[in-house]
Amino acid sequence: MISQLSWKIGGQQGEGVESTDRIFSTALNRLGYYLYGYRHFSSRIKGGHTNNKIRISTKPIRAISDDLDILVAFDQESIDLNGHELHDNGVIVADAKFNPVVPEGVTARLFAVPITAIAEELGTSLMKNMVASGASWALLGLPLEVFNKAVEEEFGRKGAAVVEKNIDAVRRGAEFVLEQAGGPLDEFQLEPADGKQKLFMIGNDAMALGSLAAGCRIMSAYPITPASEVMEYLIKKLPKFGGTVVQTEDEIAAATMAIGANYAGVRTMTASAGPGLSLMMEAIGLAGMTETPLVIIDTQRGGPSTGLPTKQEQSDVNAMIYGTHGEIPKIIISPSSIEECFYDMIEAFNLSEQYQCPVIVLTDLQLSLGKQSCEMLDYDRIVINRGKLVSDVPLLETHAQFKRYEFTEDGVSPRVIPGEKGGLHHVTGVEHDEIGRPSESSINRKKMMDKRLSKLDNLQITNAIHVDASYEEPELLIVGMGSTGGTIDEARARLEQEGIKTNHITVRQIYPFPTELFKPYADRASQIVVVENNATGQLADQIKLNVGCAEKVRNMLKYDGTPFLPSEIYSRSKELV
Amino acid sequence: MATFKEFRNNVKPNWCPGCGDFSIQAAIQRAAANVGLEPEQLAVISGIGCSGRISGYVNAYGFHGIHGRALPIAQGVKLANRDLTVIASGGDGDGFAIGMGHTVHAIRRNVNITYIVMDNQIYGLTKGQTSPRSAVGFKTKSTPEGSVETTLAPLEIALAAGATFVAQSFSSDLKQLTSLIEQGINHEGFSLINVFSPCVTFNKINTYDWFKENIVNLATVEGYDPTNRVMAMTKLMETNGMITGLIYQDTSRRSYENLVPGFSQESLAHHDLTLSQDDFNGLLKEFK
Ligand SMILES: Cc1ncc(C[n+]2csc(CCOP(=O)(O)OP(=O)(O)O)c2C)c(N)n1
Ligand code: SF4
Ligand SMILES: [Mg+2]
């Protein structure tokens, strides 16, 4: 029996690849397996090759695999493009209709199943994905009832007859392939899973859910890949809580509307990707200057410009740190797991109110869109902290105004929301005094700048870095952020087998850089290798700038649009030592 | 009940003596008192320009934002707390150049706020460049030989965009202006009030006298019906937009807040943020 397996389905976009993947993985999730998905898709809606890969494991996994066990192919192109990933004992389940051919150099076995023919016999070729998934499920020898339950849920709203037909299609596919193979394939029998209930979701869902849990009631946003799922999730849920998603005319409106709503007391956020974030920069500066809480998600994708909109990249680090003009306090946190996507949104909303400044939550396409197992989320960890938001303040004397920008020890001033009788005040992006009136006095200017910037002197973030440091003096300190953590760990396990000592740090607090925490580990490592999906080493630059040890810092970069594979990190690390 | 004096603060505006914006400030203060508001119930959200300073000159909650973005900020404030009366305000450059995209979409969205444009046909704060409202041939610092671009007709655009309240006034006519702002506040939905507000320093063409000679008060137009959209459009075209008064009002359409499914009738800002354990468990179901 095996502890893990990789399964991939490929076809033309719009051909049912998504729904097959959804049903297949829902059933696996119910059985308690750990799953990690990777979507390959292009900007086209219909047509064009697409594939979804799922890695199935009895233990937690956070990376895609190097190779592949089972490939389900709707067309020859899917075999030609993905066949080379199959290892020697791999299996191809393909539609007999196109007379599938195993490409030269690939030794995988082929099961040609009359996928389209069976589906058409049952009434519609639309069901070919059910035939195909039934066939591949059967090869794994997993219980069919669990699979059928997932099918029932997928098609339930279309009525019992449709469910019936699809279940039939699954059965027919399974029967056909089992006859050909002479039963489930021994080498693909998975050990039973731990049976622990898990969630299965994409990072964008987790962040949207986290926002809801954090008390977010308004989202203003403009659609963009790979961020749109956040607004699509929230528009389904927010109305139940009295709130809504406003699809604005552009990202400038999205960010400024969020500023208005936060100013007026409602936790509001927006989410976008590089192009949208570029448009938001002036607004982020306004939030910084007016000390208005603001939470923005940046789901990084391939830049610059429209770049590679559906591909993986981590190249917005510099833009997020340096993008706004002038100097404002701002916090950038970067979740590195699906669970963190959830919890980090709660923390982001809290930080934005505690420090009264913009907070950017930085993810990447693979984390935002890759579907993966998520440990059960903990209700008790939902804690809301609104910082110095005050109400029922004493009434003001005639013409007096509330000191919204009062100088205080920690730089953070009490904040009231409009409607409060004793709280009248003015807010402006122009330099201002304690009651928010424009002021050009140089004494006031300096004091106000210091006040705003000093707020982050006391910044306390739990887990600013995640450290896995088993070695006192490692040969390599491997550093990453976002979705790369799991891949790095798999590479490290292989390096470890060869006696190469590595430690691992995932930077969660990207800005301000957690230098104090990071430095001791950097000092003790012979080399620091920074793994990132960009071309210039933006995270590495932050380490050099803040921590120093530039002579020890090495770049490990990948910017071809695809995530790192464990084997790539492994072999490039080996070259270094 | 607050009088208009309570909407005054002790800040001295930095506008040039004689600037049209002074009367708009007074009209907002009067209208707020006349509709029965207390200062804390009003939020004035403004853009950047000479006009944008208005939010600091009314004793209320004020938010002076960035150039061209008063409207999205104001809509955010209103959606967060629908109990507030929200006035957005700014210049013709703010609303009809850099912020034009927001203006058209705010009109379509129809959130219940009032937008007052202080239209001086020029960029005042940046010391006299052409604006989308400048006349063809108008010489400014940025058009030394005279502007060659067509003058924008914002109210016609507003009607085409589905505006439910369109009015225009002149800062010398404090009575009409005050009354229109009151009507705008009382209107359910987005109300647009464009106000001719002479810039005495940089615009020597569109002066007080020039407006007095050229504008027609709709009150004097026999048979004018502000509920008739076609008539409104025709009148604007016939007069090149040189009319004042209530131009068009449609009271049949509900505001955005009342149309959006599930949107809270109470101020969201005063909602309890905590999610119940039951709700949380319910939300997790679809991911199992
Ligand atoms: C993004 C941006 N671009 C340019 C400016 C400079 N700026 C400030 S106000 C203004 C135009 C002002 O004209 P208008 O909106 O008509 O207001 P007025 O001063 O005439 O009342 C400009 C161009 C700015 N503040 N922000
Ligand atoms: S420059 Fe013009 S618009 Fe600005 S304050 Fe002076 S008169 Fe008013
Ligand atoms: Mg102007």
Automatic annotation (TrEMBL), chain A:
Top-level taxon of the source organism: Bacteria
Keyword Protein transport appears in the UniProt entry: no
Domain Pyruvate flavodoxin/ferredoxin oxidoreductase pyrimidine binding span(s) in chain numbering: 211-444
Keyword Transmembrane helix: no
Alphabetic keyword roster: Oxidoreductase
Chain ranges of the Pyruvate:ferredoxin oxidoreductase core domain: 475-566
The Pyruvate/ketoisovalerate oxidoreductase catalytic domain, residue ranges: 14-175
One matching Pfam family: POR_N
PANTHER family: 2-OXOGLUTARATE OXIDOREDUCTASE SUBUNIT KORA, PYRUVATE-FLAVODOXIN OXIDOREDUCTASE-RELATED
Protein name: 2-oxoacid:acceptor oxidoreductase subunit alpha
Naturally occurring in which organism (per UniProt): Paenibacillus arenosi
TrEMBL record, chain B:
Cofactor field: thiamine diphosphate; [4Fe-4S] cluster; Mg(2+)
Residue intervals of the Thiamine pyrophosphate enzyme TPP-binding domain: 48-195
Residue ranges of every copy of the Pyruvate ferredoxin oxidoreductase beta subunit C-terminal domain listed in the record: 199-263
Keywords per UniProt: Iron, Iron-sulfur, Magnesium, Metal-binding, Oxidoreductase, Thiamine pyrophosphate
Matches recorded under InterPro entries: 2-oxoacid:Fd_oxidoreductase (IPR051457), OFOB (IPR011896), PFO_beta_C (IPR032686), THDP-binding (IPR029061), TPP_enzyme_TPP-bd (IPR011766)
Organism domain of life: Bacteria
Keyword flag Acetylation: no
Protein name: 2-oxoacid:ferredoxin oxidoreductase subunit beta
Organism: Paenibacillus arenosi
